[in-house]
Amino acid sequence: MNLIMTDTFAIELTDIDKRFGAVHANNKVCLQVKRGNIHGIVGENGAGKSTLMSILYGFYQADAGQIDVLGETYTFTDSHQAIAAGIGMVHQHFMLVENFTVLENVILGCEGGALLADGLAAARKELTRLGDEYGLKVDLDTTIDQLSVGLQQRVEILKALYKGAKILILDEPTGVLTPQETEELFRIFNALKQQGVTIMLITHKLREIMSITDQVSVMRAGQMVAHRDTQDTSREELAELMVGRKVLLQVDKKPANIRAPLMKVKRLTVADSQGINRLKDVSFELRAGEVLGVAGVSGNGQTELLEALSGITPMTSGSIEVLGFEMDAKNPLTPDRLRELGLAHVPEDRHRMGLIVDFSASESALLGYHTDPKVNSGIWLSNSKVEANCQALMTAFDVRPADPQLKSANFSGGNQQKLILAREMERNPDVLLIGQPTRGVDIGAIEFIHQRIIDMRDAGKAVLLVSVELDEIMSVSDRIIVLCDGEISGRINTADADERTLGMMMANALDPIDPLQTMDDQQAFSKQESNQVSSQVASQENKL
Amino acid sequence: MSDVFLTLLLTLDATLRVSAPLVLAAMAGLFAERSGVVDIGLEGKMLASAFAAASVAAVVGSPWAGLGVAIIVSCGFAMLHGFATITHRGDQIVSGVAINILVGGLTIILGLAWFHQGGLTPALNNESRFLSITLPYAQQLAFIPVLGPIYKELISGHNILVYLAFGVVPMVWWVVFRTRFGLRLRAVGENPKAVDTAGLSVIKLRYKALLVGGVLCGIAGAYISTAHNAQFTRDMTAGQGYIALAALIFGKWRPLTVMLACLLFGFLDALAVRLQGVVIPGIGEIPVQFIEAAPYLLTVILLAGFIGRAIPPKASGKAYLKER
What we know:
The complex is a heterodimer of chains A (about 550) and B (about 325).
Chain A: H1 2-7, E1 9-20, E2 23-34, E3 38-43, H2 49-56, E4 64-69, E5 72-74, H3 79-84, E6 87-90, H4 102-107, H5 116-134, H6 149-162, E7 167-171, H7 179-194, E8 198-202, H8 206-212, E9 215-220, E10 223-229, H9 235-243, E11 261-271, E12 277-287, E13 291-295, H10 302-309, E14 317-322, E15 325-328, H11 335-341, E16 343-346, H12 350-354, H13 361-364, E17 376-377, E18 380-381, H14 383-396, H15 413-425, E19 431-435, H16 443-458, E20 462-466, H17 470-476, E21 479-484, E22 487-493, H18 499-506, H19 527-543
Parallel strand pairs in A: 3-8, 3-9, 6-7, 7-8, 13-20, 13-21, 16-19, 19-20
Antiparallel strand pairs in A: 1-2, 1-4, 4-5, 9-10, 11-12, 11-14, 14-15, 17-18, 21-22
Helix pairs in contact in A: 14-15, 15-16
Chain B: H1 2-34, H2 42-60, H3 63-87, H4 92-115, E1 132-133, H5 147-155, E2 158-159, H6 160-178, H7 180-190, H8 192-197, H9 202-228, H10 240-250, H11 255-274, E3 279-280, E4 284-285, H12 288-306
Antiparallel strand pairs in B: 1-2, 3-4
Helix pairs in contact in B: 1-5, 1-6, 1-9, 1-10, 1-11, 2-3, 2-4, 2-9, 2-10, 3-4, 3-9, 6-7, 7-9, 10-11, 10-12, 11-12
């Protein structure tokens, strides 16, 4: 019996097929995951990874195909059965009840009796044991809303283990983590692996696939296109398999030719509706011919920065000098006026601010520029001109399908993003603010978008790039500032930056920087300053 | 002095009687909203069950039969609300309002058709009503200062449904905070996805919550027509369902504070009756309309800032659609 068991796969999927209407989400997908391995699954958005995992977790039922878990064949009709078979899932968006304690969240669905008291006591004991065994420590009586994202994720893992998971599926687990938290997560993965837990990791971060997995499978357009042992493959090969053609992972760029500052931000502070400062004393300069990257874990003031700079959110104090015009809390400039002056803004959240999903592409491509005489005849907006305008943008940025009448919602994320970028960039602005340009965008489109940003820079424009993707920040920008809790917690030239240093800055593990000290940085950050940063990193390491 | 004391006792006594249906309805609303379903149809369910209870009690002659049918009718409307909003993901407010309007008309039409008394049901005799219960030794202990009158006037002398209403409150607390059903109920109203991914059925849980609410509303309705009154009259719930909802918000969806809110509203109501025609020195006669409006004014004023933010269950009002 035991002999046979060691030979079986943890998961064996055979010819899984699933259609949603006209979309063939999974087309005869086969997958074998070895016991006790860490198995990566990569693919572009819409390649069918999430559908496949949802089928495995009993969230959807496959139209055809067979699921074997730990050597036994199952037909899951709901998640309960998948959980009983030993599968646990950590979703990309955590499935936690925010005002419940950790303990209550963990026992939800397996309370062990109609009354809670016994179940809670038993769970407390078991969780303490699991915590010791895998190094998954977390205070069981804290409510979820008090925990950091990294700890919330830990609760999700505990939840799955508590329910007896032998196979753990994680969907994009590192998207919201700092590099340090990611490292910690990988340490937990290894501890779980030691204990014989099988891990399936769904991600688009090829660097992580290479560093943690044993095997990797690639999906493209609903099909499984390749299985590799991780040690026999490379990022380049995986990217090519995902997209179906060769992809440049590194942005091809010449050294920056940095000129005069076009935007000077001085001690910018922005408070939210509850009076809490979301941005505190932020000062920097944005110069012509450079890309200034703004790094940081999501929610540390990036949104407020973009919205204050583009005139959407009022400032509380401080001042901004943009293209020779001054604005402060008492004399704000409207987004409209800023746009006229030559400042363009690509919002972080394309669905909330970038476009109107119910509008046609041609209407979305006109937002903010509807008064342009080019598309108006008298008091009438000319439909044919609006569509011609959109057609031109679509051609310039290779938006597919190139149909101006199609509803904005019916484009893929990458094409929606390209449409917005086209709208803002084709006006040839002098200052371009971009938030999360490649969130939810496929690798192929990322390459294109990054190249366009570099083209803007080389044309002597000033670009501010806000991104939570460190890879993106490091490959596209020339200088980097890091936001942590609304303050600039680090400034560094990209040439001197590495992931570790940026990670420390994102967690504000370096000594705070005096906001005044860097007020008048005439040349790009002095070598001296970045030396200071790296020596601080070194001293941190010594302390550890 | 003793006169004032007695008046106070009698007012409090009336408060309990007026609050009882509010408490029951608010507890019904608590189950619904904790599960993520806004139940503005409390009013309609109470009215329907008041009508059903009075009709059945008049025909059969037993208040218990009336109560049973009232609960069945109320649960029927609760399931209708569930079918519209949980199964078909319809708008919860629209469905609730529709039930209120439907019941408002239906009770009158059925009353006219069945009893030919202008929409009223026949007046109930004592055998077909819930009557006051005198607790043991109420008369004998009345001589004890303070406690005696409190026992006799305030605690003793209510019908069984009043005792039931206030007995339900600690039970609701215990169910919501100490049982598996309660944990799942609270979870499904906060984050149904977490419940779904834990392998539990969001739909079943919400139906169960509505069913519990249906039972409580049925009791509240039967109380109004067969205990507090002795027949059904048109629109006799007179907005108590809405007051119960206000109490629910006021009490921040917690059973004990919700009960206190109901008592406060009940007290204002009882006071309104007491103060009719009373001339207060320096102010003169207080208009009855003002006192009757007081609970609503109070809700608005207190919600506007005095009780802190009332944060409803996060998923309340939203239909659950399983999606990825």
